[in-house]
Amino acid sequence: MKHPNTKTLLAYWEARRCGESAPQRADIAPEDLGALLANLFLLRRMDQGHHVFRLAGTGLCRMHQREFRDQNFLSLWQGHDRAHVSALLEGALSTPAPASLVTEAVSLDSEQTSVEIALLPLKGPEGWLDRVLGLYQPLTPRPANSRPIVRHRLQALHPAQCPDPHFSAFAAPSFEAVGLRVANDS
Description:
Blueprint: H1 4-17, E1 40-47, E2 50-56, H2 58-64, H3 79-94, E3 99-107, E4 112-123, E5 129-138, E6 149-158
Antiparallel strand pairs: 1-2, 1-5, 3-4, 3-6, 4-5
């Protein structure tokens, strides 16, 4: 995750986790994220092929010149890119851990803008990991009078990584000096 806004959102998500696998959706307070609100979005997983926008910030909607509520997030991609983004979302929810991607957002007049998208899993009201807090963060500036974004091309995927366990039953034993005594030692 490159952009400072992405790092800010990740730090907020980590703080809201409170030692749990992921924060509850109710633990996310929009007023805490004021500077990021325009590019934030919230998805709800309906099934593997449908991650529906529940909320989408004004910056995201402005870049695409459309509303996203109740639209499938995966519809922003086509072909193999769509399959990769679906797998990335599913991995973030099942791990659960943050994931991200970098994409080229292409406008109607073929203007390209690099965008970093962060995907942070959340628990819904039933306690299931079925929500994703996202950030659609442009990495390159766009002129204010630009044509709408009409497609995305994946540039890089950063899948969710399992956190390092504090203890593993399968870890190789450590043979550091621990003051062991062997039979016949005096």
